[in-house]
Design a protein that fits this description.
Two copies of one chain form a homodimer. Chain A has helices spanning 3-22, 30-37, 41-47, 51-76, 89-99, 104-108, 113-135, 145-165, 172-183. The first copy, chain A, is mainly alpha-helical and 187 residues long. The longest helix of chain A is centred in the middle third of the chain and has 26 residues, at 51-76. The termini of chain A are far apart. At the A-B interface, α8 and α9 of A face α8 and α9 of B. Chain B binds a DNA duplex (30 and 30 nucleotides) through α1 and α3.
Amino acid sequence: MDRRQQKTRAAIFAAFSTLLAEKSYSKITVQEIIDTANVGRTTFYAHFETKDDLLKALCEELFGHIISSTLDCTHTHGLYSDRNAPESVFCHLLQHLQEDEKNILELLYCESSELFLRYFKDSLNELIQNQFVNQNRKNNTDIPQDFLVNHISGSFVEMVLWWIKGRMKQTPEELDRYFRAVIEPVL
Amino acid sequence: MDRRQQKTRAAIFAAFSTLLAEKSYSKITVQEIIDTANVGRTTFYAHFETKDDLLKALCEELFGHIISSTLDCTHTHGLYSDRNAPESVFCHLLQHLQEDEKNILELLYCESSELFLRYFKDSLNELIQNQFVNQNRKNNTDIPQDFLVNHISGSFVEMVLWWIKGRMKQTPEELDRYFRAVIEPVL
DNA sequence: AATAAAAGAAAACAAATTGTTTGTTATCAA
DNA sequence: TTGATAACAAACAATTTGTTTTCTTTTATT
């Protein structure tokens, strides 16, 4: 990609992030993004069709590598390979979040965090779905599989939301223990 | 309240609901609401300060009575009074939703359903919180109580979302059974 | 039935936002 | 070096927002 394009893209992402830390998504205007990023009006629209489009792109940029890195992790271990194994997929995800390579946390700690977590949940759903298929687990209960998949990814996302809103006082390992406690009985 | 006010309020709510069935919340303009409701511009702003304000009012109108009626229910039984009792609080809530006295379902089956369910979750959180306090339950695990409360209300809302998106194929009783299966081990 | 108070309507308003177009300049990659 | 590409500024029509002003209609009360 053209070096100029990279710069503008980065500038717009940065401006958008800055604004999201200040105010909610719905109150941010394209105009403000343009001003903050200090790019021409035409330039913005050459990169993104709408504000929603920008949000989507940012989410992909942010969650893409976390998810794919986690996917590698699930190839070696399962969702919860071993009842005592410290490296569960969920712990992995939480650690990634806490390391915060791409300043995700600032974004997640904002009024519009739910917006981001919806994207996150979609990716998560696929990931967990695959796990179920691969492990080819038989249901001891007669609860539908997609209910369980939704329950797990949903609970995880709600937990992250709770974690963030509570100013992330717990370590990823602690959280993972809580999550195991409420999810393992189901599996 | 003045009969005229009631009528306008109802007209605006109806218009808003109609529009929500067509398009997402963020794309609905105050102008459209005014046109659809067939009320004067001044009138709208006399009732609601902003579109967000309207949304909030609608949510209170919709969920208010469901929650309070459920509150009565929790006074007699607990969250899950008896392991075999059919009338759990959750089943109660789901039945209320399905009966759909106030056409909530049309609203929940729209692009912006998550918006409504956020309001719902807040009410739910209080309700469950109170249950915990009243029952004065001792934790056999060392999982924090507010984690559990969030887990339960979060899971419930995610389940309802899943239910609605899947076109509500399950009965409230079925759903309640699923929910018990994944939640009771935690309690 | 008369009346004062309250609510609604219509029109106009400035200010801001959106998405597009046009012509020009700067930067990149080969 | 040069052709292609991206960025820019300025202007644009259309739309939206929230407010103000004036006038009409509907209530509730006497």
